[in-house]
Amino acid sequence: MIEGWAAIYIFLLAGFTGYEVISRVPVILHTPLMSGSNFIHGIVLVGAMVALGHATTLGQQLMGFIAVLLAAGNAVGGYVVTERMLEMFKSSKGGKG
Description:
Largest sheet: none
Shape: elongated
Distance between the termini: 65 Å
Helix content: over 70%
Structural class: mainly alpha
Number of helices: 4
C-alpha cells in the first residue's frame, strides 16, 4: 500500500504528466482523441473508487474523493464532447431552402 507523501507525489506527477501530454495534442485532434478514449475514463473512475474504498486515513479519503469527482467529471465530459461532435455530422433534413 502506498503511504502518505508517496501517494501525493504520484498523484501530482500523474496530473502534471497528463497535462503535458494533452497540451501537446494538436487542437484538431482533441475531439477524436476524447471520443476514442471514453472507455479509459470509465476505467479511471472504477480505479478511483477502489482506491477510495481502501483509504484508511482522512488524507487518503480526501484524495480518493477528489479523484472520484475528477474522474467522474472527465467521463461525463468525454461523452458530452462526443455527443456534440456526432451532432455536427448529422444531416439536416427538412431544412430551409
